[in-house]
Amino acid sequence: MTDAIRTAIEGASAYLGEHPDEARYTDSLATARVVSGLHVRVDGAGGEVLETDMPAAVGGGGAHPSPGWFLRAALASCVASLATMRAAQLGWSGFRVEVDVDSESDDRGILGLDASTPAGPLSVRVSLRMTADGIGLEHLEELAVWAVDHCPVSDAVHRGVPLHVEVSDA
């Protein structure tokens, strides 16, 4: 599997090096609709489906993970993917990774009780457990930093991406 990942990355890198104008694109659309109460279904252009719900404490049914959990899950899976891609690029064998992501939040922000309290996480922690044949902790730490630095989800969380809001009649 490592060879297939490395070969795919090399091919994509070579192609984009020759065609840099094709590197930038609009990401696929995610469309959310309220099913009932605070249960939301999100559909993707390729048939993807994701469902969320809010906890009972704020009026939800708690039947599905919250949107915030999916943010943490997206970050954890993205960092794990990028770490695996980088290990493959470096030719590391026996690479394994687990990524935990948690965050600290203050519900006063999401409920609008304190204008000075952000609605989103106050901080985010990414914890990686990794191993690879013959690779020491120093190199694993370098790979972890690389993975977090190149993960689009951690970049969006950390960098503060411009957000544009449009409203129209349904």
Q: Any idea what the CATH superfamily of the largest domain is called? A: K homology (KH) domain
Order of strands across the main sheet: 1-2-3
Report the total helices. Answer: 5
The name CATH uses for the topology of the largest domain is GMP Synthetase, Chain A, domain 3
Name the shape in a single word: globular
What is the CATH architecture descriptor of the largest domain?
2-Layer Sandwich
Helix content: 25-40%
The count of domains is 2
Low-confidence stretches: none
Give a count of the beta strands, DSSP E runs of length 2 or more: 5
Radius of gyration: 19 Å
Distance between the amino and carboxyl termini: 46 Å
Strand proportion, as a percent range, falls in 15-25%
Major beta-sheet overview: 3 strands, antiparallel
Key terms for this structure?
about 170 residues, alpha+beta, GMP Synthetase, Chain A, domain 3, 2 domains, 3-stranded antiparallel beta sheet, 5 strands
Helix-strand blueprint:
Elements: H1 2-18, E1 30-36, E2 39-44, E3 49-52, H2 67-89, E4 96-104, H3 107-110, E5 123-131, H4 137-150, H5 152-159
Antiparallel strand pairs: 1-2, 2-3, 4-5
Helix pairs in contact: 1-2, 2-4
Give a nutshell description of this structure.
Helix content is 39%, strand content 21%. The protein has 170 residues and is of the alpha+beta class. A 3-stranded antiparallel beta sheet has the order 1-2-3, with no helix packed on it. It has a two-stranded antiparallel ribbon with strand order 4-5.
